[in-house]
Amino acid sequence: MDTIPLDPSQAGSYEALFRFLQGCQARAAERSHPQLVSIAAEAGALDPLAVLESIYEENEPHFYTERRSENLAIAGAEDAVRFAPTGPRRFAEVKEWIADTLEHTIAVGDDSLPFFGPCFFSAFSFFADVEQSEPFPSSSVFVPRWQVAVKKGRCVAIANALVEPESDVAAEATRIWNANTKFRSFDYADSEQRRARPRLDVIETSECGGDAIFKQSVSKAVEAIKRGDFRKIVLARALDLTANQAFHPLEILNTLRERYPDCYAFSYANGRGESFIGASPERLVSVEDAVVKVDALAGTAPRGRSASEDAQLGNQLLHSEKDLREHAIVFESIRRRLQQLGISAPESCRPYLKKLQNVQHLHVDIEAKKRSGIHMLDIVEALHPTPAVGGTPREVAVASIRDFETFPRGLYAGPIGWVNAQGEGEFLVAIRSAQVSGKQARLYAGVGVVDGSEPEREYQETNLKFQALKENLL
């Protein structure tokens, strides 16, 4: 990536921007390869979700994630470039495509800004293969035409454009100039008008596969565990909801980020009307300043109605043999897979309680030093799926999931996140999630099944997770 350390806000005129893009076009012709131009400028206080909501179009792709407790939010929409490989090499192919794109990128601005340069927003389905009828491919990655990010109080607006020898440079210059002007004094008036609409109500709910199928599947899975087929398998349920009007994914996200500040509120839209949204408590991996962070999350208990009841439920979870065993399986798998990449992780852990609004989990933060030469997506590929969403041994358990579930998982429990131009980034595990399209929504909730799991208890745990999603859809 070539960097030009200019402040776009000091460019002075549309004509100067137009001449610069003409130079990029000449370079594209000279090298016989399109050039991705990424222009970053520090902006005033902007709310990325509010910006995205104000210009939301269901026929345009978008990406959004926010973890309010860490003062981090990022949103982008429309695509300057996009790639969607399939099959077992999907992670490697995305990594190669990112490297090739950066080789032909011209980044303008202060390179010390957070998120300087193009950001690659990615979503991977749980399984490496998906049916053609599914709304999301097995992998997709795109660089948005515009992006707004906030990190620790600093807000950065980025415009991206693919400049080809035959591009309409005047049109691109106009778009970027207008966007830069808009972000300097953003008007949220349109979003206020969008929110003035009738109350949304769910008028029909049905379970994929029928009401009895999940408990039957848990029983069969426990039998398979006793036979020694695998040690743990994660099984999910899916509920289909029909509402009296269309769901608005970004309005739902505003509720999620307010109620779950320690979770990742997220949305990934395919540009054809479907959005995958949620508030995930689980980070798959983040990389910043060569430090790798991974969440080991497993074991669930409800929150209490009083301080005493809450403490009692948490204490029971901390001493539950079944839940501690489930968490140990997750931790050991993560540690082993990091070691295979030459990343040393702690040998033992003592889980603590991660308390959310309606549930609490056993949780451990794993930190390690990233080894030189290891790409962010190498770690994503090595870790996905963790035993927290797949099972163990991984290959056998994951291959068996489709024998027990009656619906395609799609993006559910897959990695969703971003990689920046410096190779840093963050991926969450897409749980506590729903796929929304018009008046339809499909909600997902899963549990880890191990020896000793009881069908009724696992059913009630998924109900607990569903309830939080249902409450936030309305």
List the helices and strands and how they pair.
Layout: E1 2-4, H1 14-31, E2 35-43, H2 48-54, E3 61-67, E4 72-83, H3 90-103, E5 105-108, E6 120-124, E7 139-151, E8 154-163, H4 169-184, H5 189-195, E9 202-207, H6 213-227, E10 232-243, H7 249-259, E11 264-270, E12 275-280, E13 283-288, E14 291-302, H8 307-318, H9 321-340, E15 352-355, E16 359-369, H10 376-383, E17 391-392, H11 394-404, E18 415-419, E19 425-429, E20 433-437, E21 440-450, H12 455-473
Parallel strand pairs: 1-5, 2-5
Antiparallel strand pairs: 2-8, 3-4, 3-11, 4-7, 6-7, 6-18, 7-8, 9-10, 10-17, 10-21, 11-12, 12-20, 13-14, 13-19, 14-16, 15-16, 18-19, 20-21
How would you characterize the overall build of this protein?
With 474 residues, the protein is an alpha+beta fold. It folds into two domains: 2-193, no CATH class; 202-473, Anthranilate synthase, CATH 3.60.120. It has twelve helices and 21 strands. It has helices spanning 14-31, 48-54, 90-103, 169-184, 189-195, 213-227, 249-259, 307-318, 321-340, 376-383, 394-404, 455-473; strands spanning 2-4, 35-43, 61-67, 72-83, 105-108, 120-124, 139-151, 154-163, 202-207, 232-243, 264-270, 275-280, 283-288, 291-302, 352-355, 359-369, 391-392, 415-419, 425-429, 433-437, 440-450. The model has no long low-confidence stretch (mean pLDDT 91).
